[in-house]
Each structure stands twice: as structure tokens, then as C-alpha cells.
Amino acid sequence: MQPVVETLSGLERRVDLSVPVADIEKEVETRLKRLARTAKMPGFRPGKVPLPMLARTYGPEVRMEVLNAKIGDVLEKVVADSKLRLAGTPSVEPKTEGVTDDVVAFTATFEVYPEVAVPDLSALEISKANSEVGDAEVDRTIDILRKQRVAFEEREGRTAADDDRVTLDFAGTIDGVAFEGGTAQDFPFVLGQGRMLPEFEEAARGLKAGETKVFPLSFPADYGSADVAGKTAEFTITVKKVEEGVMPAVDAEFAKQLGQAEGDVEKLRADIRANLEREVKNRTLARTKASVMDALAKAATFDIPKALVEDDTQQRIAAAREDLKQRGVPNADQLPIPAEAFASESERRVRLGLLVSELVKAESLKAKPDQIRARIEDFAQSYEKPEEVVRYYLTDKARLAEIEAIVLEDNVVQHVLSKAQVKDEQVSFDELMGTA
């Protein structure tokens, strides 16, 4: 008789199953005989260990392996016959009440994948991001590149201002006592870049070479050094040198430094514009993709398996620990990271993943080879040797899979945009780049 799969609640199911003892013992005997061909034990030649001795030594272990395999086979058949899809690992408990001696009975509790209903895409409201790259954006980018190559020239009698490099001696004390890290000679830093605490920079601002200043400085409570955190020190600074930052001219030499072999400034501007347009395209697509995924996630109302949420949460916790390790945090493996911190986002990711998967299947949105190739070639254009990048991605299965996943998401985004209510969103270049 076909076992009855009982619905507990939502996606949780339960079924009582049994395996004949005779089947288990027969398989145990078969495996022990197979093991006997090569088994080694003290006092016996390989393959000559008596079967009863093998059974005493390895019998319990083999029997457990067989039992687990039989349980898996029976459960798999029931799930397949019931046209269900298991989500996560089932919980299996032995059953003894009302069970005859000729069978081993157990109860399996498990979750199944939900029936994913694709929402009405025409009812979704999507923001499609747009941004422009003009001469002003190219000019600002060139200025950033010039600042990265600034040369500092000493100016006699110059008053220190932001973007100047100041070289000074400093000595700090707390309650009249010097502290570690509070003294330095010929220490250089650029004003206005936030390398020093604001009170320190403000004290140096406006001084000339040869001038000295004494001032109080309050260390923040969360300052990196516990010895001085939250305390107030008295600093004495003496400026040794003030250097003005001089940016390079936008000329042939500058163009060559940036990889324009001919030193052609106009070609350099064209290259910069192309790079900016490529970056803007990627960022607006990412912004639009986020709007599409948010709308899909809100429209998805089906139940999701708790097991999948738990798996995703554990993966995110593992990633967080790895990130802490990379940052040099001691004992990152032992630090408590509450699962609740990721639960909400994990639920969203699982629900969205199931919906996107259903959309891909229903609308045949799988990534095509020519799409993958085009995406790799576009990505490679930002590198000095694009052809090598293309070859690297096409010959590395892991990298290729990453690009395939990106293209698949792009296909889903374009499909949703073709059906949904789309509102154009003009985004400023600065906001898009995070420099607003």
C-alpha cells in the first residue's frame, strides 16, 4: 500500500515508512562478503578473514550504512510517486509503536518546494535609471586623475591651506605625560584629506614654516588606541615646511602617463568618456535591476521552505566570518553572529530566487552563449589587454558561471521591463557614482 504523505502546515510534510528486516540483512551480508575480499586483520592474510569475525568488527557500521541507504531509497520513491520536491534534509525518527518485528519503521518529516505563482508583471511599477555623461563629467574625471598625480613644491612664507602638504614636528602629552604614538619628527600629511583628527588639522591650518602652536585635542571615545580613547591631550606642533600641490597640465605628457601612447589629449578624453559611459551603463543597469527585484520580491506571496532560509543564513554567517578574518579580526570563528541579523534578507533572497527560477523556466530566459560572450567582451574593455581577459573567462568554468548568472538576471530584468509599468528615473552623475 502506498504510504500517505501527511500535510502538517504550510510546506511541512510527514510520512511513515518501513523497510523489511530481511532486505537489510541481505544487503549487510552482501557488503560484508565484498569487504572480506580485501579485509586485513592481525593473524590473517588479506582476503582470508573469517566472515563472522568481520561481522563482529564491522557489522554495526555496515548495518547503519545499509539502513540509511534503504531509508533514503524508500523516502525518495515516496516523494517521487507523490510528485513532490524535497527542500532541505529530512528529519528521520525511528518508530516502534505498532511495528512488527519483521520491519524497521521510521517517520520522516520534511519540507517541499512551493508551487511558485508568477505575479501579474503588468501590475509592477519599475523605476528605470538613466544618467548622462557630458563634457563636465569628463572634465571632473580628468581633474581627479590630475590630483592623483599632484607634485608638491615648497613655497617660502606660504600659509598652510587645504590640499597643501605640511611637514611638522609634534609632541603630545596627557596630564603632562607623553604617550605612545604622540610624538613624531618631520611628519608629512596633506591638509583636508582627513588623515588626522579634525582638531589637529585645524591647528595646522593657517601656519607658516617655523611657526609653533599649542592646542588641546580630545580623542574620540572609540579611538583605535584604548590608552588615549576619550581623553584630552595637549599637543605642540612646529611647522617645518609647507608645500603647495601643483597638478600636472593636461598635455601630451599627461596623456602618455594615462596610457595614451600617442600623447593625443583628444583621444584621451574620448577614452575617458567611453570608460565613464560604460561605468554609467553598468550602474544604471544595477539600479534598474534592484528596482525590478524589489518589485518582484514584494509581489511574491508564496510560502518558502524554512530549510532553504536556514541554509542561506548559514552561508551569510560563514561569509561574514570570512570577511572578519580578512580584516584581521582575532577569533573571528568564535565571535557570536546572530542568525536573526540575516533572517529577513535570507527570506527575501530565497523567495526571489524561487520566483526568478520560475520566470526563467516559464519564459525560456536562459543565458545564451552569444549573450555570455558579448557580456565578457564588454567587461574586458576596461582592461589594458581585453583579449587576455576574454580568454581567461572563457577557459575558467567558475568565472564563466558567474557571467552566465549575471546575463540570466539581465534577461529577467529585460523581460519584466517589457511587461511592467516603467517610469524613467533621471539620476545625476554624482549621485550614481556616490560622489554627491
UniProtKB/TrEMBL annotation:
Signal peptide: none annotated. It holds the Pfam family FKBP_C. One of its GO terms (cellular component) is cytoplasm. One of its GO terms (molecular function) is protein folding chaperone. It is an enzyme of class 5 (isomerase). It catalyses: [protein]-peptidylproline (omega=180) = [protein]-peptidylproline (omega=0). It is found in: Cytoplasm. Involved in protein export. Acts as a chaperone by maintaining the newly synthesized protein in an open conformation. Functions as a peptidyl-prolyl cis-trans isomerase. PANTHER family: TRIGGER FACTOR CHAPERONE AND PEPTIDYL-PROLYL CIS/TRANS ISOMERASE, TRIGGER FACTOR-LIKE PROTEIN TIG, CHLOROPLASTIC. This is Trigger factor.
